[in-house]
Amino acid sequence: MSIKTPFAVAALAALLPLYAGQADIPQHFSDAAKAKLADSVKIAPSEHQLNIVYFHGNDVEPAKDYERRLSELFVYLQQFYAREMARNGFGHRSFGLSMLPNGNVDITTIKGSLPHKEYPYSGGHGKVQHEVAAYFAAHPEKKRSHHTLILMPTWQDAQYSDANPGGVPFYGVGQTCYALDYADFDLRHLGENTPQGRLLTKWFGGMAHELGHGLNLPHNNGTAQEMKELGTPLMGAGNYTFGMTPTFLTKATCRILDRSETFAPAGDKTAFYTTNEPVTVENPQMKLKDGALVYRFRAGSNFKHVNAYIQDAPFAVNQDYEKVAFTDVKRKNGECLLRIPLDAISALAGAKELRGENAQKGVGGIDLVFVQEDGTRYTHRVTFNWADISAKGTPFIEVKSFKGC
Ligand code: ZN
């Protein structure tokens, strides 16, 4: 053993840059990045890593110095997620990143088969994803999880430039999400009240938010109290505040990330997203009692977490930024109870009406999102007229369940 120890130590030391996060900040990072990462926390090693792809047309090159710039941004973003996970009780866990020996993030750069204009914002996704899938099929060792973030360099034409980036896909599609790159996409500008600083919040905050979708997250807002104390949730309007004003992850968000593949701690051998056993919900009932909505239901036990989200209609994606997240569902022998104080949802028009303020009566809804051990989510949705809510009970307009959230 005495002979093996030095080798074991050396081997461990060689492995550390892969996992240790940012205790050692690479020398080649900019001084501004080093300053912003100076208080980095150690991040728990992850079993799986986020796939980061840089995809560009065959007639353009990646934006200048992209490997250093993007490495700094991803390391900073990984820290943000880790701090918020810890604040919500999950320890310093974050999406896993595959690191190179020099401390850069391992980015898979793919030159597309077509000119850049063939991969536009509208409709470009299909072609990009097809080529990325072909690349991963040929290089299976590069595919480290189900989750992929694809960056593409801004177009440079009459409309778009480094000062006004765009042209390329920028959205989430299932567990794939897109972001864009441009010359000043650089951590040094974060928080600056300058054109580059405001642009960075827009596109870095945008990337942070789209990545959230790619890691399984739905939109949500905090309670009125959380919004006052903590700022703006990243999965609400936080893409517009990130780096400028306080931005946070709700506990509901962190509970989904707790069972998101790239957050799984090293050694967690779960086969993610493989089961197909819907969570059953029976007998949902809602009453108004002591200034709160009291929501009761009976649920099967095949889940780890359940979040509740309450909102005004409509319920379509991208019309749901205001839905308020709750996590304190009490569970006992399959009976579940959730109390939603009207004060906590005071921003919703329906709650205003119930509080006696002047507001439009309309339709509201509660989504229960069940998070299973393997990361699969099921949603159970009830909708109702706010005007029908009473101490005796509330008739539901519609009750439905679906996979995902
Ligand atoms: Zn979004």
Please give the alpha-carbon distance between the first and last residues. 52 Å
Q: Portion of residues in helices?
A: 10-25%
Q: Strand share of the residues?
A: 15-25%
Query: Which regions are unreliable across 5 or more consecutive residues at pLDDT < 50?
Result: 1-22
What is the H-and-E element order? HHEHEHEEEHHEEHEEEEEEHEEE
Please state the overall shape, judged from the principal axes of the Cα atoms. Answer: globular
Structural class: alpha/beta
Number of separate helices? 8
Give the ligands present: zinc ion
What summary fits the major beta sheet?
5 strands, mixed
Mean pLDDT: 93
Question: Care to count the β-strands?
Answer: 16
Strand order of the largest sheet: 2-1-3-5-4
Radius of gyration: 23 Å
Description:
The structure is a single chain. This protein is of the alpha/beta class and 405 residues long. The protein contains eight helices and 16 strands. It has helices at residues 4-19, 31-36, 66-87, 124-138, 195-214, 224-230, 251-258, 349-354, and strands at residues 51-56, 108-111, 148-153, 172-173, 176-181, 232-233, 247-248, 281-289, 292-299, 305-312, 324-326, 330-332, 335-341, 363-371, 377-385, 398-403. A five-stranded mixed sheet has the order 2-1-3-5-4, with helices on both faces. A five-stranded antiparallel sheet has the order 11-10-14-15-16. Bound molecules: zinc ion. Zinc ion (ZN) binds at residues 209, 213, 219.
